[in-house]
User: Fold this.
Amino acid sequence: GENVEQHPSTLSVQEGDSAVIKCTYSDSASNYFPWYKQELGKGPQLIIDIRSNVGEKKDQRIAVTLNKTAKHFSLHITETQPEDSAVYFCAASIVGNEKLTFGTGTRLTIIP
Amino acid sequence: GAVVSQHPSWVICKSGTSVKIECRSLDFQATTMFWYRQFPKQSLMLMATSNEGSKATYEQGVEKDKFLINHASLTLSTLTVTSAHPEDSSFYICSARQPPSGANVLTFGAGSRLTVL
Assistant:
C-alpha cells in the first residue's frame, strides 16, 4: 500500500519568512495530493491540493509543487503570519479511490 | 461549501459502556464517509469506510465488533464504540467526499474526543 513520509516534524519560522514542508510517497499510481491544516482540537481543513497532471499550484500565500519522477511534493507558505501556526498534513490518494494516506504531520510555529 | 458536522464534540464515559458518535453531511449527500482515529500528536489513521446502505469496510487491525459503523442515510453515518475501555480514548474524525462525483476532495468534521475512565 501507499506510504507517505513527511518532514520536518516540527518547524519554527519567524513571522514574515517562508515555510516549506516536504512529503514523499511510495505508490507511483497516486495522483491526488492534498494538504490539510489542523488546529488544536479541530478536524483537518483542506488548504490546497494538486493532481499529478500539473507540477505547481498556487493560492495566494500558499503553493504546492509536485515532482512525479521523484515522487515528492512540497507545501510552501510565504509571508507567514501567526495564524499559520498549526499542524499540517500531506496526503496521497488515487483519483476515484477516496482513501487518503496521510503523512505524519508537521507542527508549524510562527514566531512573532 | 460542503460542511460535515460531528456530534458530540467531546464525551466522557465509564469503562464498559458504549458511545455513539454521529457524522452528518449538512448540505450534500454522501454515499461514502470515512472514520479516522487520531492519537495525540500523531497522524490520522483510517479505521473504516462507511457505505450508505451496505456494510462498512474496515481497515486491517480494526475490530468490527468494537467499532460499529452504520450509514443509514445519505447524510448520516454513526460510529459506536462498544464496551469502551481506556485504550479507546482518542480523537475520532469523520470525513465525506464533496460533490461533484469523481473529485477526491474530502471534507472533515471537527472531530469527537472520547475519554474513557
User: Anything to note?
Assistant: Chain B touches chain A through 23 residues (CB under 8 Å). The longest strand of chain B covers residues 44-51. The CA atoms of residues 45 and 96 of chain B lie 15 Å apart.
